[in-house]
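ok so for the tutorial part 2 we go from a plain amino acid sequence to predicted structure tokens. step 1 is just haveing the sequence, like this:
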Amino acid sequence: MPPPEPGASALFGHAAEGLVHPPDYYGGGITNLLASLCRAMGGGETGYPGLSGFDPQRLARARHIVLLVIDGLGYDYLCSAGAGSLMASHCRARLTSVCPSTTTTAIPLFLTGLPPQQHGFTGWFTYFSELGSVLAVLPFRARLGGASLETVLQPTDLSAVTPLSGRIAWPSRQLMPQWIADSCFNRSYSGASRIGAFADLAGLRRALKRALWRANGQSYSYLYWPEFDSLAHHYGVQSREVALHFAELDALFGQLKEDLRGSDTLLLVTADHGFIDTTPQRTISLQNHPELQRMLMTPLCGEPRFAFSYIHPRRQRDFEQYAAERFAEQLWLLPSEQLLEAGWFGLGEPHPRLHQRIGHYALVMKENWTIIGTLPGERAPGHIGVHGGVSAAEMHVPLIYAEC
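step 2 — the prediction. this is what the tokens look like for a chain of 404 residues:
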């Protein structure tokens, strides 16, 4: 039987209702969007329902499907700061991200069609028991020292899921910024896709026009834009810098609509996660809690808003007590296995190593709190804008839709 829908009260308590927003894998999430796309383009079933209210026949009839993922563009932001924009006027649905609500768990979904339950990547820092090491997944480097692993290992070796482009019948392209296009992670999951690179938003527009002009028959284009996320991290999602960039993205959306007019293209825009702003005063640093650090068998993994902890077997009760006494107002402490059983990472058979990659406990941060620990040579991130948690601002993303 499938796990129950991952409601909040069962794990977080009734007091968390309205504060905790679970991922939706049953028809209202980005996982279901990818299931619909995969099915429409001849890739068969992913094991997940298609997106509710989405006409699969319309998808399958289109000449071109273009999916633009704007990293960090949350639904709440679109409806508040982006109210009155062209993208807001074309917003068709509010979708949920995956868990944790972060790039490292969502981008593999867009590249494979499968969420963390199957692809097995659980946060920016993931502990791989088969390597005995913590890696920064997307740059594919060891956390300690930053050594690249690509000469001895590929990301697909740690995930063993098929790239979406290898499943679908339509020819596909991945259009990425230059500094990402040839990365180990992107190449590993490009599959049968042609990879194109661009330098800026104008280059993105040119690259897409060129790709569709060269297409012979139906085609699928996946585009990724990271600058919104970068600015939100550095300045905060409510900053003037982010607002100005959003205006540029909204103008781009209008330009793409004009470029694609009459081409029988479905233009879809969504995101991997949203954002919430924090402050240094809302950060728990493990350096200030040496007793807690001594209970850990590995560094904290996952995300500052959704951290996975590996506890010495003789110190688990001490860990629970410490968290209850010191951090009751800052975080929910949940056995990771309960999150897995409740379907927070996805549905169906999990990746064979997923149990090891989510640790013993998840530290799920309340309000806009974060928790960080650093290794020798590391600097604390110091981000103003953060994500990975279970708030509405982080978990909800838009589906923007235009028929061109």
